[in-house]
Amino acid sequence: MEIFILGFFAIGYLVLAGADIGVGMALPYLGRSAGERREVIAAIAPFFLGNEVWLVATAGVLAGLFPRLEGELLHGNHTVVVTLLLAWVVRDMGLWLRGRVPGARWQAFWDGAIVAGSWGLALSWGALLAHVLLGIEGPVALLAALVPAALFATHGLTFAALRLRGALRARAAVLAGGAGEGRTYALTSAALVVVAVLAGLRLPLEPGTSGPLLVPVVLTLIPFLVAAQAWVWWTFRHRVSGPSYL
């Protein structure tokens, strides 16, 4: 049961947050002006905070139920983990601060932070996955990290195609072809699930001794998390019609 819980949260994070990471990576391509970029950001505005809850939950499950695995991952990938956290902070700072001052330079600077932070997140996750799947470390891991990063970007474009309208939608849908936006999003989601499962099969998943205490608590919370996620998706199921609060 502990392995199922860890996989549930990790896969949920990659699929859900992978979309807003990918949108941030593609922001310069999707948004050619300040107004367009703000509309692109509106596509992920209702979701990105809730998506981050899945990462927090994954980290909590890892620390509480798999303390040995947590130690091995942090010890062997300290630089990658620190880079990931810094990129997370930079990306979120960009999202929160870009619209707080109306100046063009201010907004352009924080738009750059969103892009840099999103690429940092994607490459950090890619490097971590490369280490787990292939045993690659150091600078060479960055080359292997480009493959998962490209998957994040593709996933983000398919999500943006589902959320945007007009010319922005047409740019985002460039990868959908004749398959349709929904089907393409399902395919990129499935690809992320496969990557997560393959990584899980390579990890020494040995639960700690706190399972009997923590597992019932986590299982009780999962339905509430899923219900909240479903409510957000249902509430914001329509395409973006204008700028958001960001």
UniProtKB/TrEMBL annotation:
Name where it mostly resides.
membrane
Instruction: Enumerate the transmembrane spans.
Output: 6-30, 42-66, 78-97, 109-134, 140-162, 183-201, 213-236
Spell out the PANTHER family in the cross-references. Answer: CYTOCHROME BD2 SUBUNIT II
The listed locations are: Cell membrane
Membrane topology term: Multi-pass membrane protein
- Renumbered to this chain, the signal peptide range is none
Q: Which family does it belong to?
A: Belongs to the cytochrome ubiquinol oxidase subunit 2 family.
Biological source species: [Actinomadura] parvosata subsp. kistnae
> Biological process (GO) annotations?
aerobic electron transport chain
The family database entries (InterPro entries) matched by this protein are listed as: Cyt-d_oxidase_su2 (IPR003317)
Source taxon at top rank? Bacteria
* Pfam families per record: Cyt_bd_oxida_II
| Recorded GO MF terms | electron transfer activity; oxidoreductase activity, acting on diphenols and related substances as donors, oxygen as acceptor
* Protein name as catalogued: Cytochrome BD oxidase subunit II
Q: Which GO terms describe its cellular component?
A: cytochrome complex; plasma membrane
| Keyword field | Cell membrane, Membrane, Transmembrane, Transmembrane helix
Whether Hydrolase counts among this entry's keywords is: no
